[in-house]
Structure formats: C-alpha cells, structure tokens
Design a protein that fits this description.
73% helix, globular, two-stranded antiparallel sheet, 15 helices, mainly alpha, 2 strands
C-alpha cells in the first residue's frame, strides 16, 4: 500500500513538473503581453459587443501560440549564449530539460495552429499576426544584436499587438493610443537593457557581446529611457485634452487622475532600475512589484470612475 502511494505521489509530482517545464518552454507568462489585443476594445467602451469579445479571445489564443513558436525558435538559436547566462541557463533547452528536437517539431505545429485560428478571426488580423511573426523572427535572428534598433523593435512589437487587436471588427486604434504605446514600451525596452548592463557591471564585464552595448552606455540608456517614459506622459496628457475624451467619458475631469499615477509609476520603475532592483524582464517585475500592481489598480479605477461618473 505504501509503495503504491509513493508511486502515485511521485507520478503526480513528475506530471506536474512536466507541465511546468512545458509552460516555461512556451513562456506562458509572456502571454500576458497579448492582453494588449483587448486594449482598443476596452478604450472604445464596446464592452457589450459579444462578437468582438469572441473574435478577440480567438485572436489572443492565436497570437499566444504564434509568439510561443518564436520563443522556441529564439531559445534554440540562443542556446549556447543562454547556457553562459546566470538566469537564462535554467531555460528548458539551455538546461537540457527538453531536447532540441522537441522544439524543432513543436514550433511549426504551434505556428500552423495559430494560422488556422487567425483565419477564423477575419479582418486584417491574420496579416498583422504574420507581420508580427516576421518581425519577431528577424529580431530573434539578427536585429536584436544591433544597438538601439533592438529597443525600437521591441517597442514596435508591443504596439503591433494593439494594432492587431484594433484590426478586429470596427474598433480601430487611435493616433493617441499608438503614440503612447510606442513611447511607453520604448521606455520599458530601455529599462530591460539598462538592467542587463547592471548585471554585466556586477560581473566585471565591459560589453554585452550579444547586444552591442558597453557597460559605459548605461547612463545614456537611462537618459533615453526616462525621456521616453515622460514623453508617454505628455502624449497621455494631450489625449486627455482632446475632444474624444468628452464623448467617451461621463466625467472627463476625473480622468486627469491617471496622469500623476502614471508619472509616479514610470518614475518608480526607473528608480528601482537605478538601484539595481529591476528584473531584466520588466513584465515579471511589474506583476510581482506591489507598487506597480497598486498603480495599475488605481489607474483602472480612475478610468472606471470617469466612465460611470460620480453622483454628488
């Protein structure tokens, strides 16, 4: 009886471990980024449009599978450099948990499945997803090694998600949303590089051979990132002064509350980066950092109050 219990226990443990390894291989936590597909719908206040929600859910799955296929390709291409990295050496392919041939077979299956799903969404979503795949593949293959180009492309890849989401139905993506997206994600891309350079500095190295940056470039990267973040704040303020705000929100004056929240958050992110407390993946930092989570909740609450209004 005891032996059977141990077998069941270890069997369940082994199954759970395999699931976790699979999730790490697909980088399921990175699927959170694809939530940007829903931003155009939410900001246009088409909450009750069932057809749009249905299309966006399918689009989310398609985009996530497409992204996972690229992550697998990227990990296979970078396997040698990942093995020399203090954190990335634990990735499934670099650590040897998953054989390379599994990734070679799985990547095209994921891509094909995403293509089939994208065809069901309609509109120009399919074209935008394929464009995203091509740009991401080019980034993983070569462009991520070119200084500054890598950061600009990272910002564009985030923005492409918003454009793809806006291409479904009649939602669209406004100039203000896309401008804000480019600047905020450019700032976060610079945060990522700045954090990587700090790790190199602690290791006593002078250059990131994979990215084309020197440790001495850190102050310039910091300056460019902070400037991009506050440029996003300016775009947000200008948007709040546009005529569209009056149409979308019952109490537009309340929406101005998002400005100090956003300025605090972007300043907080760069302060943490300056102190060497930033994860080299800003997404992981944001979902674990209490101040970031509270800022996000406060941001959403202000938008909701401005939408429904307050009865005095």
């Amino acid at each position: 009886m005891q032996a059977n219990a141990n077998i069941k226990k270890h069997g369940l443990f082994g199954f759970g471990k395999r699931i976790l390894t699979c999730a790490r291989m697909l980088r399921v936590h990175q699927w959170l980024k694809n939530g940007l597909l829903f931003v155009p719908l939410l900001l246009s206040h088409q909450f009750s449009n069932v057809n749009l929600w249905h299309g966006l859910i399918i689009a989310f799955i398609a985009f996530s599978l497409c992204a996972s296929s690229v992550y697998i390709i990227n990990d296979i291409l970078d396997i040698e450099s990942d093995r020399a990295h203090p954190r990335k050496c634990k990735r499934p392919f670099a650590s040897g948990e998953v054989p390379i041939w599994v990734g070679v077979l799985l990547a095209p299956v994921l891509l094909l499945t995403s293509v089939v799903l994208a065809h069901q969404v309609g509109g120009t979503f399919f074209s935008w997803m394929l464009f995203y795949f091509g740009v991401t593949l080019a980034y993983s293959w070569k462009l991520k090694n070119i200084m500054l180009v890598d950061c600009v492309l990272l910002a564009m890849l985030y923005t492409l998600r918003i454009i793809a989401g806006g291409s479904i139905g009649t939602v669209g993506s406004s100039f203000w949303l896309l401008a804000f997206s480019v600047f905020i994600f450019l700032s976060l891309a610079f945060v990522k590089r700045y954090a990587e350079l700090q790790v190199l500095a602690l290791a006593g190295k002078e250059k990131n051979t994979r990215r084309g940056y020197f440790v001495s470039d850190a102050p310039m990267i910091q300056m460019l990132g902070i400037a991009s973040g506050f440029a996003a704040a300016v775009v947000l303020a200008l948007y709040l002064n546009s005529e569209k705000i009056v149409v979308l929100y019952r109490m537009p004056i309340l929406i101005w509350g998002v400005i100090p929240i956003f300025i605090f958050w972007i300043s907080w992110v760069w302060m943490k980066a300056h102190r060497g407390e930033m994860h080299d993946d800003p997404l992981i930092f944001a979902i674990k950092d209490k101040a970031s989570l509270l800022s996000g909740i406060a941001f959403v609450c202000v938008l909701m109050l401005g939408t429904v209004g307050i009865t005095w």
